[in-house]
Design brief:
The chain is an alpha+beta fold and 340 residues long. The protein has helices at 81-95, 119-135, 141-156, 163-170, 216-230, 243-247, 251-275, 279-295, 302-313, and strands at residues 14-26, 36-52, 59-62, 74-76, 79-80, 103-109, 180-184, 189-193, 199-205, 318-321, 329-335. Helix content is 38%, strand content 22%. The longest helix is centred in the C-terminal third of the chain and has 25 residues, at 251-275. It binds alpha-D-galactopyranose.
Length: 340
Amino acid sequence: MRVFGHVLARPSEIAVGCANGRVNLIGDHVDYAGGLVLPRATRETTTVAIAMAADGSDHFTSEWVGELVDALESDVAGDASWERYARGVLIELRARGIMVPPMALAVVSDVPVGAGLSSSAALEIAVARAALALVGMELTPADLALLAQRAEHLHAGVPCGIMDQWCVAHANPCAAQHDAMLLDCAQRTHELIALPMNLRIEVLDSGIRHALRDGGYAARRQDVFDAAARLARPVEELARASDAEIASLPAQLSRRARHVVTEVARVRAAVHALRNNDLAGFGALLQASHASLRDDFDVSTPEVDRIVEMALARGALGARMTGGGFGGCVVVAWKLDGRE
Ligand code: GLA
């Protein structure tokens, strides 16, 4: 990490913020349609150190600066994408009337970038926590999540749903991450769901990197909104569409709508299965979710499909892509047999 000695005001004016990544167990590409999702915070975290800058402007650096910055899509005048997320949060805090002074900000993280584990929300929430700590203020986790989502929409250009920011803003990076979070994205309410002791969740990285700003994410989201508009339903009501309504849509929109309807039903069923220790049922739902994201939503890749198949061949209960897709990670569920 680069040191900001040359711009620091006084060494005492320093604060640190930390935030988890998240892995979504089931319920992808439904949060922006007001659906149900079941993420869990990861052990991996992003930490931001922040200090008042004496020269009146914001400065950003990270362990990614250098060879990794190209891979992170440095598209506007050297403005690497991670910096847009961080800057966006500072802009939104100031727009809210929180007097965040000019600052120097440095990031370290073990949340993999572009892997579907919410490196963006981890960065946004860590920046916000550090900046708020510096000025001695607090926001509720809900307000923090909404502010971070707004920063991502307006300053990073990603029309994301609320799942990532909500999950990350409500997680405690100092605590072990046992429970999953059942989040109703329309109501913005959640409850914690305990995972059975004999269920092991593993996350495998395909190594294929996406950038959600590439357009595939926004295009899928637009399809979902178009499908709802054609059915004259608010998008939050799309998950209640009937088979006949889905069949009445043009082929591509029909597949997108079918994914939303069936995925929300699968999240509900997955929670039921977890509560009843039905691990086989839970695994089957992960499988069905992956098939839907691959075949109806077109967001998987051959590499990710291959990892899913290999995990199943090795006896996993179920496996699926997780997050926005186009590469990234696979979440795998295993049954512990008591010997592990
Ligand atoms: C990204 C977005 C989320 C969500 C997922 C897909 O992680 O940030 O809002 O849409 O993709 O479930």
